[in-house]
Specification:
By secondary structure, this protein is mainly alpha-helical. The chain is about 45% helix and about 0% strand.
Length: about 130
């Protein structure tokens, strides 16, 4: 048995963030030209199953009908990610989880020195007592 790292991201916090990350990963893999077109049929077949009128379990059953639809969709998405080349999946996961900021940062203003440390200029400085 080989020790493989999981391809889908491990749960590290908010379930909504993890779900969005997985959706973005699947979308990026689907659009990647290095992924063979036959692999891209897997998630499409899951969506087609949802759209066509035939079901494994009829939707008349209150819960079971929706569970089989969700199971087919989730299973097809999971299988798609698992069948994609691991190096491409890792590349996309690294890109998605990397912290990157696009754009230019404004330069910070230089901090002004406190008034007691400013060099005195001629005619400007602390008020001098006038002597008569």
């Amino acid at each position: 048995m080989t020790n493989q790292t999981p391809r889908l991201p491990q749960s590290q916090g908010n379930i909504i963030q993890q779900t969005l990350l997985q959706i973005r990963l699947i979308w990026r893999l689907f659009r990647d030209p290095r992924i063979h077109w036959m692999l891209k049929i897997i998630p499409l077949s899951g969506v087609a199953y949802l759209l066509f009128p035939f079901d494994l379990i009829m939707d008349m059953a209150p819960v079971l009908g929706q569970l089989d639809d969700a199971g087919i969709i989730l299973g097809s998405l999971w299988l798609f990610v698992e069948m994609c080349p691991p190096d491409i999946v890792k590349e996309h996961m690294d890109d998605l989880t990397a912290v990157s900021v696009k754009g230019k940062w404004k330069a910070e203003k230089p901090q002004e020195e406190p008034p007691d440390q400013l060099p005195e200029k001629a005619g400007q400085g602390p008020e001098q007592e006038e002597t008569e």
